[in-house]
From TrEMBL:
InterPro entries membership: 2Fe-2S_ferredoxin-like_sf, 2Fe-2S_ferredoxin-type, ATPase_NBD, Beta-grasp_dom_sf, Corrinoid_activation_enz, Raco-like_middle, Raco-like_middle_sf, RACo_C
Gene Ontology MF annotations: iron-sulfur cluster binding
Organism: Rhodovulum bhavnagarense
UniProt protein name: Uncharacterized 2Fe-2S/4Fe-4S cluster protein (DUF4445 family)
Superkingdom of origin organism: Bacteria
């Protein structure tokens, strides 16, 4: 009699296995992805399958009701205690008796796919560095004396095929008690580095511990720190939280923090201590909010720019403040979470810091590259992450280039006469009627446009307080489109423009966007100085992009991705009217939202992704804008709105 045929769906993998083989063993033999934490003891239920019964014409199979062995005592016990869904069987208990079709539901797939981006539906296979394993350890034997850790390691090798793992002293100190409390059965949180280095037992629980384990994906920005608590079994974000970066008190932007470190003995250390405190506070708040045991949070991934990177690692950033901008290391860093000051996590918790691309192009840009995968793109994609420094990546399947460009803080509303951070009261959207030159706008925290009925009431007491980054970009672009500005960026007089809103200010003109003086509020104008600041910032951004295009030998790109929180708020039309980004069809401009955070989460969930980004970063060609003579040339030409010479046919 021939061995029964087993077909697994959705993979379609099939093969003959000896009668009586368990479904879990059959899956392993045929290379089918079926999860198990308890190693087939009927405890974890991760191995659930749904057997099909009936005629499967596609496979030419008729499956009888008794293709699997009847429910045994172990399965029965599980069903009584925790309940099996109808139609489900425990793969580690059910034996294959005759031909069968077995469906593996998504939650039983070990390397289940996690959608990386809603927009792109690219998927990442779950492969976290730390996973749970249940083992039965041999009791000690007077006649064959070995240590408990050695017997635990022998059990991990025999039952899971795992390499020898080390244990830190605190874990070792608990080992004996836990093993005995679990009657020699123990669940181990095992960290297996993506580099293939030595595994480490991070924690142990007596008997079966179901988890889940969690990781923290941290995007450490110079202004804010955001964190996403992620379930390491499913990749789902369980909670998100953010705090201000307390280093702000040492300097608003990166360079002022580097100078603080240069001017003050111990200054770098102060900033390290401050950011460690904030990281720990964030971890504590997020575990509390999610109501999880900090012990189950076993990993953290950190992405940040080079200066934040060095300060977080306790490295003095002075070298980053001067040419040739040497990094202490550009490689990925694996450390304990404690080394980043994160204490509200498992005491053995690990941290992974993504590699840096170059002196000014950080691990945050690497995370964006991981999330957006330009190296897989068929068409040429330009990715810009706009902040005080714009980080720019250009590439496709054949080649990827990166640079950074000093845009300054104008895009964030700083250095703008009425500028402010994006907060309630800030003008964030602006439209100017080209015929009447009259503006209307929207304010953060208010659902109505300024010309809609009830706007004043909806605005509340705070009123209009200023203009934020996206607001000033739209204001300048709208002024250009309404003919209030010429291509050199000069604001016309009331006479020239026919608008009484153009008023003299010193020897130049300003445009009055909002006059709140009657109600005791501010007068919000766009001054010639504001236009100048935006021109400088956008020229730097455009010149950086053009430099990469030169290197690539192209004059056009196929699409543009705007990354970062700010990118999420920029309107592609207005960005192009200003000439911030090169000319492409408007529907080829996409906002990627917080791509750096997404990249951090991918690195948290996948060891393969860590290897991939380390490899890709080595291959990215770095372009240093500061030493490229062409940069200055591009910068000057980009001062005009949208540009002195480059064509913008899509704007016609
Ligand atoms: Fe854990 Fe089957 S493998 S219940």
């Amino acid at each position: 009699e021939q061995d029964p045929l087993v077909i697994f769906t959705p993979s379609g993998k099939r093969g003959h296995v000896p009668r009586g083989t368990t479904v879990l063993d059959a899956a392993r033999r045929l290379g089918v992805d079926l999860d198990s934490v308890c190693g087939g003891r009927g405890i974890c239920s991760k191995c659930q399958v749904a057997p099909g019964i009936g005629h499967f014409s596609k496979h030419g199979l008729t499956v009888s009701e008794d293709a699997l062995s009847p429910i045994n005592a172990v399965e029965q016990r599980y069903d009584e205690k925790r309940g099996l869904k109808p139609g489900r069987r425990l793969g580690c208990q059910a034996q294959i008796l005759s031909d069968v079709v077995l469906d593996i539901p998504p939650e039983s797939q070990l390397h289940r796919q996690v959608v990386r981006k809603a927009a792109e539906a690219r998927a990442v296979a779950m492969d976290p560095a730390t996973r749970l394993f249940l083992v039965d350890v041999a009791a000690p034997d007077m006649h064959a004396p070995t240590g408990d850790l050695e017997r635990l390691n022998a059990a991990l090798a025999a039952q899971w095929g795992l390499p020898e793992a080390r244990a830190s002293l605190p874990v070792l100190a608990r080992l004996q008690e836990v093993l005995r409390a679990g009657h020699w059965q123990v669940t181990v949180a095992l960290h297996q580095p993506h580099t293939g280095g030595e595994a480490e037992i991070l924690d142990l629980w007596p008997g079966f511990f179901e988890g889940p384990l969690y990781g923290l994906a941290i995007d450490l920005g110079s202004t804010t720190i955001a964190a996403h608590l992620t379930d390491l079994a499913t990749g789902a974000v369980v909670a998100s939280s953010g705090v201000m970066n307390p280093q702000i008190r040492f300097g608003e932007d990166l360079m002022s923090r580097v100078s603080y470190a240069m001017m003050n003995p111990g200054g770098a250390g102060e900033m390290t201590t401050a950011v460690h405190g904030a990281l720990d506070e964030l971890a504590r708040a997020i575990t509390q909010e999610a109501g999880i045991d900090p012990r189950t949070m076993v990993e953290a991934v950190l992405v940040c720019n080079p200066v934040m990177h060095h300060l977080a690692l306790g490295i003095d950033p002075v070298e980053l403040g001067q040419a040739p901008f040497a990094l202490a290391t550009s490689g990925a860093v694996e450390i304990t979470a404690g080394a980043l000051g994160i204490r509200s996590i498992n005491p053995s918790g690990r941290a992974y810091v993504l590699p840096l691309i170059a002196g000014h192009v950080g691990a945050d840009a690497a995370a964006v590259a991981l999330s957006e995968a330009p190296e897989k793109s068929e068409d040429l994609v330009l990715i810009v992450d706009v902040g005080t420094n714009a980080e720019i990546i250009l590439g496709d399947r054949t080649r990827v280039l990166a640079c950074s460009s000093p845009t300054g803080p104008a895009f964030e509303g700083a250095q703008i006469s009425s500028g402010q951070r994006a907060a309630p009261g800030a003008i964030e959207r602006v439209r100017i009627d080209p015929a009447t030159k009259e503006p209307r706008f929207r304010v953060i925290g208010c659902d109505l446009w300024s010309d809609e009925e009830g706007f004043e009431a909806a605005l509340g007491k705070g009123g209009v307080t200023g203009i934020c980054g996206s607001g000033i970009i739209e204001a300048v672009a709208e002024m250009r489109m309404a003919g209030l500005l010429d291509s050199a960026g000069l604001i016309g007089t009331a006479e020239q423009t026919g608008s009484a809103r153009c008023v003299p200010e010193g020897r130049t003109q300003a445009y009055v966007l909002h006059d709140g003086s009657a109600a005791g509020g501010p007068v919000i104008t766009v001054t010639q100085g504001d236009i100048r600041a935006i021109q400088l910032a956008k020229s730097a951004l455009y010149a950086g992009a053009r430099l990469l295009m030169d290197r690539m030998g192209v004059t056009r790109v196929d699409r543009v991705v705007l990354a970062g929180a700010f990118g999420a708020h920029i309107s592609p039309l207005h960005a192009m009217v200003l000439g911030m980004i090169p000319d492409v069809p408007l529907d080829h401009v996409r906002s990627a939202g917080n791509a750096a955070g997404t990249g951090a989460r991918i690195a948290l969930c996948s060891r393969a992704a860590r290897r991939l980004i380390e490899d890709n970063v080595r291959r990215i060609e770095k372009v240093e804008t500061a030493v490229e003579p062409k940069f200055q040339e591009h910068f000057v030409a980009a001062n005009a709105l949208p540009h002195a010479s480059d064509p913008f046919p899509e704007l016609e």
